User: What shape does this take?
Amino acid sequence: MPKQTFILNGKPVTVNVNDDVRVLWVLRDLLGVTGPKYGCGINVCKACTSHINGKAFNPCAVRVGDLKPKDRVTTIEGLNETVGKDLHPMQKAWLDQDVSQCGYCQPGQIMAAVALVKKVRREGREIRDSDLDQIRNICRCGTYFRIREAIEQGARNMR
Amino acid sequence: MTPVTLGAACRTYLGVHLEATRIHGVYMSFSSFDNAHSTPDTATAAAGLGRRSFLGYVLAGSTLVVAADLTLARPARGAVPSGVQIPELYDLEDLQTDSAAPTSQLITVTINRDGTASFALPRSEVGQGILTSTTMILAEELDLPMNKVKVTLAPARPELLLNQLTGGSNSTFSTYTPIRVAGALARQKLLEAAAILFGTTADRLTTTGGVISDGLGNNATYGELASSAASQVVEAVEVVLRPPSDFTVIGKPKNRLDARDAVTGKKKFTTDLDVPGALPTMVCRAPEHQGTPKKLNNLARILKMDGVTHVAVVPTGVAVRARTFGQCIDAIREMDVEWNPGTVSGESDSTILAKLRGQELPMVVPNVPILAETVETNVAFAFRSSAALETYSAIADVRDDRATIWAGLKVPILAQQRVAEAVGLAQDQVKVNVITSGGSFGHKLFGDHAIEAATISKAMGKPVKLMWHRADEPRQGRLHPMATSRVRATVLNGQVLSFEQRHTSVTSDFSHGLGEMITSQADELDPLGLGGLSFAESIFTLTQELPYNFGVLTQLLNEPLEFEDKFSTGSMRNIYSPDVCTAAELTIDQIAKKVGKDPLEFRMEFLKSERVKTALRKVAKEGNWGRPMPKGTAQGIAIHKEYKGCTAVLVEIDCRPQTVNRDLGKETVTGPRVTKVVVAVDTGLVINPRGLEAQMQGGAMDGIAMTLTASCHLRDGRFLEASWDNYFYTRQWNVPKDIEVHIIKSDSDTPGGAGEAAVGSTAAAVACAYVRATGKMPAYFPINHGQISFKPKSFIPPVPPSPTNGLKLTR
Assistant: This one.
């Protein structure tokens, strides 16, 4: 069985599994990293949103064989380490706004939010309402309004 | 009889309940109406003459263990007045609470030697925040910091019978008093132990943050006193609860206690648990709704696939267990299965709707003057999926002599019974662990996932971690039933002479226990005139209340027998209310129009509940009702009264083409956008305002989805929806930019329900706003049900392929 190597939350990992297993299952079922959630398996609900090389991606839609050994995968569990703190400013904002209800979608929401802020900064601008409107992550508890408020707060503290 | 003779708390309610109070004048001397079935004890309490004491128990143990009876939730009821709608007096909350009463079971609080208090709550946390609110209640009575109060979810406790059901927004209402009694008793016993230690009396001691002091320099922590406060025998002790005026925790906004775990990925849901040997397991399901497997033709081929360990044909489909869920999906897609037809083979939305229409109960057609005008509403409500974001998931380890289950369950005792039946064990051989759920909305009332996982585990002889594919949920999972609601009102000279509503619905499945609770109450309910009604009709009668002075007012349900067992149904963040409320409030807008009145002015004139009027007035003021709005946009206003409380909602909607036709790319549905929501809620005593606000916000999102976008389509016995790109729950692009929640200060000293309160009123307000903005009265809800805006995913195989292009879509 092929050896799959990539960098997970700052540390290289190697897993024996076939190329075509999606990264979500490698993380959850083989490595026990359960922050990224299953909500659809077809890149629609975005509950598994994590980062690859600093950008948002959905591990349910990526074959593990398509990862390169130097690819840096960050899940919610490793987000704080990217800023060298206990909590990333976006996580802090999520706590301040008391966003979570059941909490199932929130790891994906936070990872999507962080990547969104970085993306608009790369475009040389700040978050707009129209950016928030385009976030696809589903929250079946309906925490959307507090998510919007948290992203605005988190963005202010991501400098 | 004039209001002047009444106590202050009662005055507010006089307008509503004059008829009731006239018959049973004895109630008039005390308390607010919602406490009208109070005993004289609480009457004196309300009059401020002294506080009622409750009985608690100190249990034998090496550390302090106190207990309270869950039957403390409600004082005995008085006789029931006539001439009012039943929910005004006795609603689903009472029913649930009273159903719990005969079980006489104890909940216990333990004071540990480390100074913490622990309590296993016999309810389920599904996101509604009861772990946090329960911690607050205990912290209040114990006078202990919240971080020293450890509340967990109790496993199935069969001795509690149906007192372990989380539903109908009942949890806080039914557990509030017993938990307080246990907390107060623990504090009292600790004070007594400290008094002995310090050589003083308990009344000279104070508690602060888990430390008892005599003010003379002697201090002891609860942890230090836990052993000496313990009892060697069971002792019944009277305690007095802290007066609400002394509350320092209850009523103050608190953030959720599990929030940090949720935002760091540490919060564990069922599929996150690592149970030895419980490998990922999924089920290949029939194309038709509730179809069953006949035969798997390629077992040998499936067993050879990568990662696959076991395959088993079970009643619900063909189960596969593998090293990863991804490999289960691959195996399901490869399976060659012959299927039996489902339970609604050949049926479609249109055929079911025609059958419902054919079964609508007739209107009574009251004897009204010939000049009276008639207003009619006739709307249909589509099937909707109750699924949470966490699909049905359960871990089962079934052995010859025992079984263990881990799952999100709101009625774990029933799941325990059904699992035992399914695998041929005695109930006490099945241990059911209740895991925090990734949402419920009615979904986790049923134990379908636990029963299926146990069946598979037994068939394979291995532990399994079962997870439903998303596609399984709308196609085979629990649906909110399709229904029609007809309303006919007659109006003359600006007065409403009659208002009749006939709700006709595909059968709602109440086998999760609410039905049994009703049975157990059937005799007691006879005075309310419920005798002879079915389970569903009883629940309908107990929950539906239209608090308007509309002359002859009847609301009746019919669930035709022909739909029995045809659909997998259940509640969805409320039972009947959102649909019933939407049809009623739309009609009220039409009546207002007919008599030439503004919708707000008309409601204020005809509402008979001051509590509702207060809420309505609040949203009208805060939402600036009547402000000029551009063409194609409008405000809508609606109320809903249920669960010992009420909500009023004002919304603004934008139905202009540039909004409706927004294009956000594939897999999205836009349509009209609700741009503003103002909610006013009166739910009695509020434990955690921040949690209540969150429940209102979430409920509003559900109401928007129900009216505008979310439904399932039945075609030839199959449901077309298979994922979130087909089933359009509210998404960010349809979220209002402005949501305000106003909590009305209540006279009530007990908490009401919150989880479902804003759904019906928001659904109705959005519908009313839509009609006002477009001039069109929809025949179907959600309003987009007529257009299918997606290509249905394949039925064979029943799950879509896993995409591979994720690296091209990084963002």
